[in-house]
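Feature request, filed as a ticket because there's no other form

It would be nice if the structure record came with a short human-readable summary line next to the tokens. Right now we just get the raw output. Example of a typical job, pasted below so the devs can see what we mean:
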Amino acid sequence: MGLSLIVVHYQTREALERLFASLREAKPAPLREIVVVNNSGESLDDLTASTGWPTRVLPSGRNLGYARGVNAGIRAATAEDVLIVNPDVRVRTGAVEALVASAAARPRAGILAPRLYNPDGTLQLSARRFYNWRTLLLRRAPIGALKDRSRTLRDHLMADWDHAETRPVDWVLGAAMYVRRRAMRDVGLMDERYFLYFEDVDWCQRMWRHGYEVIYCADAAMDHDYARESARLRPRSFRAHVAGLLRFTEKWSALVFTVNQHRRRLVQGITLGVDVLAILGGCLLAYGARALLDPWFEKPLFPMADYRGLFFFAVAVTIASLAANGLYRRATFRDGIERAFLLGQAVLQAGVFLMASTFLFQTPRYSRVLVFLLGPLLFALLLLGRLLLQGLAQGAKRQGFAFRRVLLLGSGGAMERARAALEGARASGFEPLHAETPMDGSEPPEAAARRLRSLVESERIQVVCIVPEADELPYLLSLASALRDTGVAVYWAGALAHLAPAVAARALGPLDATLLHAPSRGLSLKARKRASDIFLSLVVAPWRWRGLAASLKSTGESRSPGEAWRRVWSGERSWVGRSDYERDRWTGVPAWARLALESLRPGVFSPADGTPSDRFARVEAELAYLTRFSLAEDLRVFLRATREAAR
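Raw output as currently delivered:
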């Protein structure tokens, strides 16, 4: 057991020496090792040789930033829990023991922080309430002494509390944090998109949203030389602070999250706007080039106002050609050659159409010269605009914006490997989280589904990835089915994809994963299932009436096709749905499977038709259908059932 102490060093040699001296004086019994992440690069052998504990130095080779440095130390640590301290912290006698004792008394504590003191012995306000727009504005506004009298800021800093009791708080400064390994396995490590600042706020926020507490431990005392470099407005520090604020806002703002959910459409709109500007710019440059060539033509150049119709027509034709070539549907290309080829093809098609229109409408000859000049200018400006947007997108991605939070469901080695792969892909915009999914009956499936839905909504999760072991598969499928209406995409990673043979494989970053459910931004599952039934009733069933009758007869059903049609139309059944488990009171159906399947109506046809008669095999097949439901899937099952019965 015990704990590992982790410290990130960057040009803090004197402070690090004082920290080691305080540890030698305090002699904390639970401490097992010290891990120093050396972001500076200079040798620390003379300092680490006499710390009194096994000490390792991790040479990073460059300044990784605080969050990445902490995570590197956590991954290298061997003890169960970790104590993260800044180099400018001095540990008092008994402080570490008090943190360990407080953690033992609070099993749901994920992060515990000591009481911090300034160098002059005054209390440091290290426990805070979460930010809101007022506190963010007031904290950064140059209002001087007015800050001390602001009730909003005093509440944010918890300045009117005496800090004499151990209690839960919203968040604590990252200068000193005792963090449980169990909480880190569920919540994840620090978000490495933060280079400096706001990573502590973010981690505490995630702890609370994941069901863990953040505890201010008044019995543990440490000293902290809090420099407040952000308040000095140094350019580098100021930029890091602003970048952290922007990332924090992108991650936790409900408005920004909603915009991010529709990011593809937003990017398409921005691309369209840039293309319109590029086309208008090409028209203006073509007019300017024609003006320079005016001495070579007998007819005079008309005023630009006379070409407004031609310019707007060029915009409409070029945009239509770009759309026809798929340049708004596609976001990525194999390489720059493919993108340039498609752009050139679209511009050539638009140019031919524009040139033909000048003959069709008897436009003056020099208008054709404009069209001829417009082609290469359009190609150059459209390509330049696309390259600019690509550069901005890649820059935002490198800075950690437009990320995707992935909730992993599973408990075996495959899940751990998937989490490690996503952790390694944080620079590509992925942040993995893990949720406990006990199958031992300790948590009813309905409660597990409610907990996961709440977690998805509170954590702003965009992707749920199932990584099951063989015995976890049906249970995790049912839980994933219960999350469909939360607006998340559901993926399936691992080798157990035999229940979804009709679904094309798609990569989820570094994972070889299968997309089971693409999120619908509009109708709920129940509404889309009802729309599928109405479509099949009105458009498909009348043309498959004979096959429908044969299918009902082959299954021993006493109902006529007309009776089946009536029951579907009235909403009693679906054309494609689950088995009628109500007839035998759900005997043999596990409670977790019933949780998912009850959202479906019994079907005239079941996706499990043709599977072995074993009840569990039918349940598995119907769970897989529920996870991948679509109108196309219903149409396929309906046509196959009525065709095979008619043969």
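Something like this underneath would help us a lot:
The longest helix spans residues 365-398.
The chain has four domains: 3-131+164-228, 263-398, 404-517, 525-646.
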